[in-house]
Fold this sequence. Notes:
Distance between the termini: 63 Å
Low-confidence stretches: 1-23
Structural class: alpha/beta
Number of strands: 13
Largest sheet: 5 strands, mixed
Number of helices: 9
Shape: globular
Order of helices and strands: EEHHEEEHEHHHEEHEEHEEHE
Strand content: 5-15%
Amino acid sequence: xxxxxxxxxxxxxxxxxxxxxxxxxxxxxxxxxxxxxxxxxxxxxxxxxxxxxxxxxxxxxxxxxxxxxxxxxxxxxxxxxxxxxxxxxxxxxxxxxxxxxxxxxxxxxxxxxxxxxxxxxxxxxxxxxxxxxxxxxxxxxxxxxxxxxxxxxxxxxxxxxxxxxxxxxxxxxxxxxxxxxxxxxxxxxxxxxxxxxxxxxxxxxxxxxxxxxxxxxxxxxxxxxxxxxxxxxxxxxxxxxxxxxxxxxxxxxxxxxxxxxxxxxxxxxxxxxxxxxxxxxxxxxxxxxxxxxxxxxxxxxxxxxxxxxxxxxxxxxxxxxxxxxxxxxxxxxxxxxxxxxxxxxxxxxxxxxxxxxxxxxxxxxxxxxxxxxxxxxxx
Length: 379
């Protein structure tokens, strides 16, 4: 059997008008305008869960919410986060604050900073270790002690990478592969090592090699591999046409997708020669081993799709909003309220590509000898 394995780092941007978050287009110049109920029950709810879990510090976003930059937004930062949720930790500001408020707001955030570190993180304890690294100066010998804390964590990373992979298509049981497979060809961004090394891009903001984490200030350094976010619903590096070109030449094409969210798959998902679609997400630096474990059935597929995938860009409730002059603030109206994701699709009766939590597995099962028993009435 000859098999062609198309490995693509296919990725997507987060929804571009996320409350208390950021976006790629005018990320500091868009105001997310949300009604009170939707704010509380959808967009602020994860922050409540974070407070309940004992989070020590929060950072407000770059963009305004309801026409006021989040760092100076009394409703978001004081009414909701502090008074309603009882958050007693510290706040980290973004770079966007009205000049007249800078001193007062900085003092307001500094006051609880030290108590929160002691109360939540116990940094006043004699046993709390001293700082031993500077993430911005990794080569500095003055601070960095280069303490190796990795142990055998790579095993867990590999296991999680395999366990989170989702099987979306498996025509004629093309997977798992037999160990006696004679020919295997890899094509695409994942097909070889990145040309720039594991940590060549600031905040992992590159687009070569395998995609293993989103980019930005929340990233970490790798020891062996290196990649970023998306700002659309199509594949990087002309990926859709690559899949079509490969499938035109091979009748057993496996597509492996590394992505931060859904993609439009309509151009090739129903191609008869695309026999397998593996949704690998962001697997970290053990991505290669994790995929191999899945392909050869060393790990049964258990992952479920964490989002809904649609057939057309217009099917999604939120669309990208662009335009405006350089100094304009773009208003993003959350008029859809609660009708997001499956509620939007159900309301509009839109046919899905893959629903939330969809998955296939290598395991087979069937129902037999079914019996229906009528229960007595409890009236």
